[in-house]
């Protein structure tokens, strides 16, 4: 008997019919001889609706009370799903994040998991029950307050539980059939990937791929938990994310290792660009800028510093960050303007990032040239460039992103010859 952890996103449990469909899939896994733990998100857009409601009552709600409100969405889902499973003749027990032993730090709205002590979950499944756990939430180790994990929190909950329970696999159910070579909402000929390494998936997630979040993949890599990304709307095989390549046998009996040169093209239009103009080109200036940003608890992505002008000895430093943190970053830098000594700030939230990801890039010359040729042929202008061994990222105008993604996807032969990718829901989660 194996132990399987399954996670179902909001689009999978968006309504009563969706919950019944998910219940049947969970029961099938149980009937196949597995112990099953299911992690659920809030129904549909419930979390967004609760945030809107909170903002109507208070423009800046206290983090503790907002967490208390938002965790209600997952509690509704878990209870309804347990009811649906019992109606199918199987025993199910629902658990909140704290009841499941998800221990976090005390940062509200974006807490990090410190430990998982799943004693109650283990006891429940050993007694023959199906355990249903509310995702996205935990309990603070210090204050004992309810916390939420931020964007992608249910994925992280599922992987963390899988690691703590020593599960055989963590299945992430979403509204597409797996991980694709590009967002199928933008590239209709995107191809489903059968297997992808943790490293490539981490780069795709960090570059804007919405199927899995970076934190979830990093947790899985740390504890070597295989992830199977698949759709709750179909019975098709999805994408395996793991440390070891999938080996398939051809009809001729040959062994083939599925590891492509390029894993995919990701894009992200949720970032903004800040340019610090007229920075003295001397040691310590960049440190002052990014210490100010760090003290404001803002994560940055790409950084580019221009060559200083010989006549003035001044340079410009540009960096990207989430749009939601833009105002905070500008305010923090303006407050410390005299200490840093820059001339002015420029803010641009009409940008997009396109990233090409693949472990094979580091041993194949010409990839960079082909990437920039594809963008040039599409008439796309580049504002920033960032690279790693397995990734090339550029910043362009936001309006150019769809065309740029399609051009790069085609240039590297990633287009599928078969049917177009199916998107069963509308959000990608």
Automatic annotation (TrEMBL):
Signal peptide: none annotated. Keywords: Amino-acid biosynthesis, ATP-binding, Diaminopimelate biosynthesis, Kinase, Lysine biosynthesis, Nucleotide-binding, Transferase. Residues 274-350, 356-429 form the ACT domain. It holds the Pfam family AA_kinase. It catalyses: L-aspartate + ATP = 4-phospho-L-aspartate + ADP. InterPro entries: AceGlu_kinase-like_sf, ACT-like_dom_sf, ACT_Aspartokinase, ACT_dom, AKii-LysC-BS, Asp/Glu/Uridylate_kinase, Asp_kin_monofn, Asp_kinase. Pathway: Amino-acid biosynthesis; L-methionine biosynthesis via de novo pathway; L-homoserine from L-aspartate: step 1/3; Amino-acid biosynthesis; L-lysine biosynthesis via DAP pathway; (S)-tetrahydrodipicolinate from L-aspartate: step 1/4; Amino-acid biosynthesis; L-threonine biosynthesis; L-threonine from L-aspartate: step 1/5. Its EC number is 2.7.2.4. CDD domains: AAK_AKii-LysC-BS, ACT_AK-LysC-DapG-like_2, ACT_AKii-LysC-BS-like_1. Belongs to the aspartokinase family. This is Aspartokinase. It comes from Streptomyces massasporeus.
